[in-house]
Design goal:
The chain has 722 residues and is mainly alpha-helical. It folds into four domains: 160 residues, Neurolysin, domain 3 (Orthogonal Bundle), CATH 1.10.1370.40; 66 residues, no CATH class; 192 residues, Orthogonal Bundle (Neurolysin, domain 3); 182 residues, Neurolysin, domain 3 (Orthogonal Bundle). A five-stranded mixed beta sheet has the order 3-4-5-7-6, with helices on both faces. Strands 1-2 form a two-stranded antiparallel ribbon. Helix 2 runs antiparallel to helix 3, helix 2 runs parallel beside helix 5 and helix 8 runs antiparallel to helix 12. The radius of gyration is 25 Å and the shape is globular. The two termini are 38 Å apart.
């Protein structure tokens, strides 16, 4: 996702521009020159969409449509900005702030279609478009935020703010618009603005190149297994998927192909007894974009951190982290490090205990030598079975992907009264995509939801949510269109897509983001849904994970895909009993990446940074053990080098404090309390970014969050087994 709303009040720098299919209020027929009209007639991205609920006509959109549509959108917004600046009347909230908020409707519409497709179903034309348009969008954004006459009008309104009759959301729009223009360099001198433009343009290009390099490195790797014994206890559905992948790759042998996509690599590391094969696959993953070839990201990282540091100082901040955190809940780097350090010590101690248990299990297998990083998942599974008589593979038949989907739908119905209807007439960007109309408790239309479940080479790794259209209520209520995107194993032959426990949790997590987008009820698009500070936005998604493993919720949907039998009570008991298992590893690998992110961005002089040595030194400084690597090593850390999490990867932990504490509100009343859910919807899900995150949380909970529920949930407040 990319932030292209040029009011720039949206703190979610990964979010595509706020968008609706309405015509901008400042757009007039004369603004549509003949060339634009021709584009509109020939380009479906620019035409009026005669589709259900105004969804994009994906069946008509071709890859080559995006670039001219982007350029038309920028041209139109430039005309709208010129109209605002040329207004001879005194600057007011309506003719300046709200007019700016309305501007760019065509550009934001195009952006909100392109960037999700670029992430989920890219091709060579789309990749080239992304490279081409990145610096052009950067320049366009700078043309707006560095426009002296435009900022003069904004500043004029801002100076009158206390005398204006503005409601709270209008006042916040004014405050945030002014703040973001200042943060974007509106007060800089001419030469400084020129340098800022150059930096922003280069960073935009570097970000796109980084992401494409990671995708190429991921897709170019293959582990071909020719011995069935090397698969060990790999689940049957994943064995079939690996066999199909081998055929698709042109192999005619009885063999199995494994990639660096998580549905492929993680199960192999978990179940394969072939230590050499595990090492080969693990090294392939850990060395992505770090192989000295045309897809190497080291020079991109070095240049990126140097330019970010320079830009921060140009804007009056000591470091990039200081610049970013000034607009976050955490506010400053000291508070981030305080949180990380508070959790790191018990997490590392727990991971060291876990290492000893896995080493003991490996020695018991007759394997000499020290445990290595590629051994961890394999022996973790063995320890899990020995300690809890619990085999995660036994869960997969109860987590068929559509059943898990229906489970989160049912939970949403129990909590908020929502219902979902499959819409076969709504076409997505890929045949695997599913589309649903979502209804509120009163039966009214609420949103359109796309779900794109399966991994493929045209899709980047991970899981995420996009908003194709943000909710707004300026010229009438505009309903949202959102997507959930995953990288789950695809069905093969007679075998459906069966999820692991963690993959099922991922579905609940991303659906939490979707709820945040679908239940939005604000006036301005720039505050809608997930348009919140980065260290708040993961809270609504992470809190939904809590329900997934609750026995009451598991019994709603976890049924054997062949027999229809409910998940056995003893398996539910084992899930509950093992909830704190391996939390040292999970916490440490995540936090190591968080420390690495901060280390890159607290530097006030980032010149001559060599990423490999820098990463090694940072991991040594925090005491990371050799058997664990950061969840994301530098050269494929897309969150911070091609996404919006730079100096912000800590946000998941920050948000987990909120989600663990918030879930206690339900545990204190009822797991499915409609009253508590209504308060959560009112104060959290519907309000978007209309108020500061902590204020929203305290309105819901009645107090500030406490860290103890998080520490307890991860097993760091009391002894827990390895």
């Amino acid at each position: 996702m990319k932030n292209c709303k040029f009011v720039i009040v949206c703190s979610l720098t990964l979010a595509v521009a706020a968008c609706s299919d309405r015509q901008s209020a400042t757009e007039t027929p004369t603004a549509m020159n003949q060339s634009t009209m021709n584009d509109k007639a020939q380009n479906p991205l620019l035409a009026d969409w005669d589709t259900p609920f105004g969804v994009p006509p994906f069946e008509q959109i071709r890859s080559e449509h995006y670039l001219p549509a982007f350029r038309t959108g920028m041209t139109l917004q430039n005309e709208e900005i010129a109209s605002i600046v040329a207004d001879e009347s005194d600057a007011s909230f309506a003719n300046t702030i709200e007019a700016l908020e309305r501007s760019g409707s065509v550009l934001t519409r195009v952006s909100r279609v392109f960037f999700p497709v670029n992430s989920a179903h890219s091709d060579d034309v789309i990749k080239e478009t992304a490279k081409t348009i990145a610096p052009e969008l950067s320049a366009h954004r700078d043309d707006i935020t560095l426009n002296d006459r435009l900022f003069g009008r904004i500043d004029s309104v801002y100076r009158q703010r206390d005398s204006l009759d503005l409601n709270p959301e209008q006042r916040r729009l004014l405050d945030e618009t002014h703040k973001q223009f200042v943060r974007a360099g509106a007060n800089l001198g001419i030469s400084q603005k020129a340098r800022l433009r150059a930096i922003n343009s280069r960073l935009a290009s570097l970000s796109t190149e980084f992401n494409q390099n990671v995708l190429e490195e991921t897709n170019n790797f293959e582990l071909l297994v020719t011995e069935r014994e090397s698969l060990g206890d790999l689940p049957k559905s994943l064995v079939a998927l690996a066999a199909q992948r081998a055929k698709d790759n042109g192999h005619e042998c009885e063999c199995w192909s494994f990639s660096l996509q998580r549905p492929s690599i993680n199960p192999f590391l978990q179940y394969s007894p072939d230590r050499a094969a595990r090492k080969y696959l693990f090294d392939g993953y850990a060395m992505r974009a770090n192989n000295g070839n045309e897809h190497d990201n080291n020079s991109i990282i070095a240049e990126t951190v140097e330019l970010r540091a320079e830009r921060a100082q140009l804007l009056g901040y000591q470091s990039h982290a200081d610049y970013v955190l000034a607009d976050r809940m955490a506010e400053n780097k000291d508070r981030v490090y305080e949180l990380l350090d508070q959790v790191w010590k018990p997490a590392l101690a727990k991971a060291i205990d876990e290492r000893a248990a896995r080493q003991e299990m490996m020695n018991g297998d007759g394997v000499d030598g020290a445990l290595q990083a590629w051994d961890w998942r394999y022996y973790t599974e063995k320890v899990r079975k020995a300690k809890y008589a619990f085999d995660e593979d036994a869960l997969r038949p109860y987590f068929e992907v559509n059943a898990v989907r229906d489970g989160v739908f049912e939970l949403s119905n129990r909590l908020f009264g929502l219902t979902f209807e499959r819409r076969e007439d709504i076409v997505g960007w890929h045949p695997d995509q599913q589309a649903f109309e979502v209804f509120d408790a009163d039966g009214s239309h609420l949103a359109i939801l796309y779900m794109d479940f399966f991994a493929r080479e045209s899709k980047r790794g991970g899981a995420w949510m996009n908003a194709i259209r943000q909710q707004s209520n300026v010229d009438g209520f505009v309903t949202p269109i959102v997507t959930n995107n995953f990288n789950f194993p695809a069905p093969t032959g007679d075998s459906p897509s069966l999820l692991s426990l963690s993959e099922a949790e991922t579905l609940f997590h991303e659906f939490g983001h979707a709820l945040h987008g679908m239940l939005s009820n604000v006036t301005y698009e720039s505050f809608a849904g997930t348009s919140t500070p980065r260290d708040f936005v993961e809270f609504p998604s992470q809190v939904l994970e809590n329900w997934m493993k609750e026995p009451e919720v598991l019994r709603m949907f976890a049924k054997h895909y062949e027999t229809g039998e409910d998940i056995p009570a003893d398996i539910i008991d084992k899930i509950t009993a093992s909830a704190k298992f391996d939390q040292g590893f999970k916490t440490v690998e995540y936090m190591a990446a968080s420390y690495l992110d901060m280390a890159y961005h607290v530097m006030d002089d980032a010149q001559s940074t060599e990423p490999g040595a820098f990463e090694e030194r940072t991991m040594t400084d925090i005491g990371l053990i050799d058997e664990i690597i950061p969840r994301y090593r530098s050269t494929y850390f897309s969150h911070i080098f091609s996404g919006g999490y730079s100096a912000g990867y800590y946000s998941y932990l920050w948000s987990e404090i909120l989600d663990a504490d918030a879930f206690q509100a339900f545990k204190e009343t009822s797991l499915l309390s409609r009253e508590t859910a209504a308060r959560f919807r009112q104060h959290i899900l519907s309000t978007g970014g209309t108020r500061p995150g902590m204020e929203l949380y305290e309105n819901f909970r009645g107090r500030a969050p406490r860290i103890e529920p998080l520490l307890s949930r991860r097993g760091f407040l009391e002894p827990a087994g390895p």
